[in-house]
Specification:
The chain is mostly helical and about 180 residues long. The chain contains 7 helices and no strands. The longest helix is centred in the last third of the chain and has 33 residues.
Length: about 180
């Protein structure tokens, strides 16, 4: 996966949702007795803070992604084994929405940052190019800054906030003693 480097003054905005989301997730996992999930979230907090403070560091990117996937897998196992049917459906719908949003957001940002000839062909990219053509923005312009901000904010909403709110909702629907 290509690394998209977002300027630090913009990428640090993501910490505004990362830290509260992870702390809420840790609280819910602690109250529901999921110690492994609690530990994974603690590790994710550290890797995410490191990554979003220096997002051109490839090694920490891949570690952060691996831990995030482990957290999603652990939460999915909990959703399957312990959530009510509606909580489980909400969780897996949120994962589907988050995945699609992540892919589309990444493809849109690539089109705003790189020349079209430098972007690899993908199914999602082809759909975007066909139905929603996007122009490359020039470096060091307000348009490029806006592209980075929009992409970061979309990521914050669909990846950080959506999943933690959905998992917390599923936990509240499924457990009597979460609060």
């Amino acid at each position: 996966m290509d690394i998209l480097v977002i300027p630090p003054e913009i990428s640090r905005h993501a910490l505004l949702t990362i830290i509260p989301s992870i702390v809420l997730g840790m609280y819910v996992s602690y109250k529901t007795g999921h110690r492994l999930l609690f530990g994974l979230l603690a590790i994710l907090c550290v890797t995410s803070i490191l990554y979003w403070n220096n997002n051109d560091w490839a090694t920490i990117l891949y570690i952060d992604m691996a831990v995030a996937i482990a957290v999603i897998c652990a939460k999915s196992y909990i959703a399957i084994t312990e959530f009510t049917p509606i909580g489980m459906c909400l969780w897996f719908a949120a994962i589907a929405i988050m995945s699609l949003a992540f892919i589309v957001n990444r493809q849109v940002l690539k089109r705003r940052v790189y020349p079209a000839a430098d972007i690899e062909k993908t199914i999602v990219g082809t759909v975007i190019d066909t139905h929603y053509p996007i122009s490359k923005t020039e470096a060091n312009t307000t348009e490029r800054t806006a592209a980075y901000k929009e992409s970061t904010h979309m990521h914050m909403g669909f990846v950080h906030v959506l999943l933690v709110v959905t998992f917390t909702t599923g936990a509240l629907l499924s457990y009597k003693k979460v609060t």
